Amino acid sequence: MILEEQGISLFTIVPIIVGIGFVIVIGILITRAAKGLNTWTTNNNSPILTVPVAIVAKRTEVSGGGQDSMATTSYYATFELEDGERVELRVSGKVYGSFVEGDNGTLTYQGTRYHQFERKL
What we know:
Keywords: Membrane, Transmembrane, Transmembrane helix
Helix content: 25-40%
Protein name: DUF2500 domain-containing protein
Radius of gyration: 24 Å
Number of strands: 5
Mean pLDDT: 92
Shape: elongated
Oligomer: single chain
Number of domains: 2
Strand order of the largest sheet: 3-2-1-4-5
CATH architecture of the largest domain: Beta Barrel
Order of helices and strands: HHEEEHEE
Transmembrane segments: 6-30
Low-confidence stretches: none
Number of helices: 3
Distance between the termini: 78 Å
Strand content: 35-45%
């Protein structure tokens, strides 16, 4: 083998490749944890707002679901405030199912965190 002729064996290369892979995986995990912590902190430092809104859109996002893995569905609702600004928030599947586009009511949220929607009858 060419590498062995140069004094390099697989016993030298494989641990280096495995080590690099390990560092990459740990780096990805640390980055995702830092992003989640940043979002959590930002939401906690945001004021809790209660505003009149209309539900203008609903959407789902499916991730995973390859051969042997489970699929995960995330649910989102887009609310339009009186000034025309739109806010998209992640909601539970149960809450998502109760929403109808065009509903009007009062939304309570904090940053990107959904709290409650009270439909105006």
